[in-house]
Amino acid sequence: MNPMEEHALRMNRRAFLSKTAVGIGTAALGGLLGMRFFRQGENGLAVEEINGAQGILEALHHPAKARRVIYLFQSGGPSQLELFDYKPLLNQRRGEDLPESVRQGQRLTGMTSGQDSFPLVGSLFPFAQHGQSGAWVSSLLPYTAKIVDELCIVKSMYTEAINHDPAITFFQTGSQQPGRPSIGSWLSYGLGSDNENLPAFTVLLSRGTGRPNGQPLYSRLWGNGFLHSLHQGVQFRAAKDPVLYLNDAPGLTRADRRRMLDHLSMLNQKHQEETGDPEVQSRIAQYEMAYRMQTSVPEVMSIEDEPDYIYQMYGPDAMTPGTYAANCLLARRLAERGVRFIQLYHMGWDQHDNLPGAIARQAKDVDQASAALVMDLKQRGMLEDTLVIWGGEFGRTNYSQGTLTDTNYGRDHHPRCFTMWMAGGGIKPGLVYGATDDFGYNITEDPVHVHDFQATLLHQLGINHERLTYKYQGRRFRLTDVEGHVVKGLLA
């Protein structure tokens, strides 16, 4: 190792900033000149040079299978019984009351707890087996059906949360109570960024046609919690200004902006030296990231250079900003540019009534684009180190909420079993994992808890979920709280 490398290894980013006359401005100049910061792990697993911000982990805990995650969160609770979990018994016993021996006194929401009966109802949509795996998939998802051999379909997910807000918060932060860091924030904190011009954690929102005015989402779902604000998710919007407060004020030139940031950095650096507040460093880094994003964000959001066959893959909605299809295409572009965690939220899956008509529209929103994203990543050689996740916060009941008719019914929330799928990132393809009973109500094989899912996600990124912690208010917190285990049966 030459003296320059030894010096770089001894000097972390904070030390570098504190020893330079113009603080972060010099770091920005270094980036423009191609300077890179070195890091070296104790076991040699993380020795690559990086351009982005460094995470707290000096080395990966084990070799990683995935470098990045694209999480397609289906907000509202997709009905597994209409999409993936084929239960012909429910059609055979349609209208019969759910046996108490199956329900076993399970807690219900206030929306159905007062019903006099719980009439069983099967799907109105036909199922068929697909691919070499023979996975059952509904006619609602014809594009997904074509790629089942790329997917790992987990039918045995379960959670304790029974209402939307705590259930989504649980999946995203590891706690049903708000205030904890989200998955993307934990990854930003632990692994840092592979790109100095874009955030490590980005968020894209879309509203589905199944229930356009359904459950809302809150920005705390992609918040940093008690971690430094540097690690919060950055929302990209389908608007003139994709990122709020990014553009300069009228009349302010880029050179003026650079001079202002340099002077502001010196003031902030002096304040940090006086107070020792680490948030000051986060503030400096955010100013600099915003400066670089003024160039990088318009480039990544501009999809006009995509060839026609890509639009055909993702479907006609891909050309409409803010749609699920357009966001899937943007997710691939962000992944190409080194964004580590890309979170999509698609709202509208909460079908308590008029489920057949609503879920058909909702499934059409996501089917083609989800499948296209997987295959697009594969054709670019990115699927093997990109973990793609599709799923919601819980499933739906096997009985009808409200009046059951020949053509209409609804389904309430069901936390005991539901379905998600994953692809790429070292997850075993062509696998159907876990099983539920003939009523689609209880898990019979290989249960996977929310914390198990989170532990497995971190494992694929080279992180031992028990060792990525943050001390706050006298306790060491982690994403999986005090539970969770890696589900080895899902790993390739």
What do these coordinates show?
33% of the residues lie in helices and 15% in strands. The strands form 5 sheets. Strands 1, 4, 5, 6, 7, 8, 11, 12 and 15 form a 9-stranded mixed sheet that branches. The protein has a single domain (68-247, 307-490), classed as Alkaline Phosphatase, subunit A. The protein is built from 15 helices and 17 strands. Helix 10 packs antiparallel against helix 11 (278-301) and helix 13 packs parallel to helix 14 (355-379). A hairpin with a 2-residue loop joins strand 16 (470-472) and strand 17 (475-477). The chain is of the alpha/beta class and 492 residues long. The radius of gyration is 24 Å and the shape is globular.
CATH architecture: 3-Layer(aba) Sandwich
Strand-residue proportion: 5-15%
Q: Give me the Rg, rounded.
A: 24 Å
CATH domain class: Alpha Beta
Structural class: alpha/beta
By CATH, the superfamily comes out as Alkaline Phosphatase, subunit A
Question: What would the average pLDDT be, to the nearest integer?
Answer: 86
Which regions are unreliable across 5 or more consecutive residues at pLDDT < 50? 1-50
Individual helix count: 15
Give the terminus-to-terminus CA distance. Answer: 36 Å
Shape annotation = globular
Query: How many structural domains does the protein architecture include?
Result: 1
Helical coverage, percent range: 25-40%
Number of strands: 17
Biggest sheet descriptor: 9 strands, mixed
Tell me the CATH topology.
Alkaline Phosphatase, subunit A
